[in-house]
Amino acid sequence: MFFFYRTIALPYSLIPINQATSTELQQLKWIGPKRAERILQYRTEVSNILVPADLIAASGLGPSQAREVFDHIDWSSTQKGERYNTTVIFVSVIASAATIAFSISRIDIDLTTTPHNIYNLALIFLLLGAGSSLLDLLLDQWKSYLALLSITLTLAGLTMLTTLLIFALVNELSADFAEDIETTFMFLVFLMLIIYLNNGPSLHLGRLTSKTSIIIELNAAVMVYDYCHLFLATLVLSILAFANSNLWFEEIFSIWASVILIVNGCEMVKGVSPYVSNLSTKEQATLKFLLQQEHSQHRDSPELLQRIVGWWSIGSGLLILSVVTAIAFL
Q1: What's the half-sphere exposure (Cβ side, CA atoms, 13 Å) at 82?
Q2: DSSP 14
Q3: Which of 42, 100, 109, 153 stands the most exposed, by the fewest C-beta atoms within 10 Å?
Q4: Domain parsing of the chain, residue ranges
């Protein structure tokens, strides 16, 4: 007679991550004395661990290691946290809603030529990309792939529009259709700049939390972010000087850009990178914590050059406001 025994998994105690002592934390896989002390330090200097991304920053574990730990943590002892700060969510919702409304208004199902079909398909991709972005924010799941889907669809739509734009320059298309392509392309470029300048630091900081060495990437990202204001100012002034399409979003974007340039320019004149100042309080504390763990100190752009960029941004912002005001009264 054979007896078959079913293996019964014995229940294990979940670790309350925000109440656990150093000894209790070391019961978790990959967590030794040093990482346990680092988690305690994070809880003291930054905040409680609210979401899995916080645990990665606090412990220094890699994403694959952290996933093995998540199921052994009592997350009921944590408060519900947001993946993104309020500004990121607000700008993302506005940008997604604007893209959806713009795409719907531009789709024309009555046109059957190949370029028009490609244009409509690009708009559909952009529409789906914006919808995926909204769902990503609403579902608020850490392992959601909706953000990646949104980026993929948006890039596909942009690629199609870029191809059509090049095709319009080489071949003769109707003036109205060529203007539609240019208008849509400019609209998306504006939105991408808005999202980058508002949300870039917060989204990039999320990448840094899983890095073992952050200082080189951080300094490069800060320099690119700060000097992007030169490009933004030049772009907006060029549009106001040479564009004749009288598009409603040109004025809205120009006003927004002028405010960003003036506010961030004031930060740079004071010797502070707007990359850091645009982070939320918790994100700034997280960045400081990560740098302390690496025994590194963040170095901003060279002070003189940073101040020059700051004054350029302030002057450009004021000039843009003046031009938009003059256009409004003409």
Answers
A1: 14
A2: P
A3: 109
A4: 22-77, 83-206, 209-330
CA-CA distance, 162 to 184, in Å (whole number)?
10
- Cβ proximity of 26 and 40 under 8 Å: no
74 phi and psi angles, rounded to 5 deg = -85, 95
Q: Which of 266, 277, 276 is nearest to 310 (CA)?
A: 266
Largest CA distance in the chain: 99
| pLDDT over 80 (residue 7) | no
Cα separation of 291 and 15, whole Å? 27
pLDDT (tens digit per residue) in 279-321: 888 888 888 888 888 776 666 556 788 889 999 999 999 998 9
- What is the structure's pLDDT at 5? 31
The first and second tokens of residue 130, run together, are 């914006």
Which tokens sit at 7? 């293996």
Sorted by sequence, the CB contacts under 8 Å of residue 20 that are 6+ apart come out as: none
Q: First vs last Cα of the chain: how many Å apart?
A: 99
Owner of token pair 């409680």? 48
Place of tokens 């529009």: 161
295's CB contacts (< 8 A; 6+ apart) are none
Instruction: Please give the average per-residue pLDDT across 30-48, as a whole number.
Output: 91
Tens of pLDDT, residue by residue over 214-261, are 888 888 888 888 888 888 888 887 777 766 555 667 778 888 889 889
Long-range Cβ contact pairs of 42-47 (< 8 A, separation 24 or more): 42/289, 43/18, 45/285, 45/288, 45/289, 46/282, 46/285, 46/286, 46/289, 47/282, 47/285
AA letter at 216: I
- Give the residue carrying structure tokens 């809205």: 252
52 CB-near residues (< 8 Å, 6+ apart): 66, 70, 142
**CA separation for the pair 226, 276 (Å, rounded):** 10
Of 162, 154, 274, residue with least CA distance to 222: 274
User: 15: helix, coil or strand?
Assistant: strand
CA 133/CA 136 separation, integer angstroms: 5
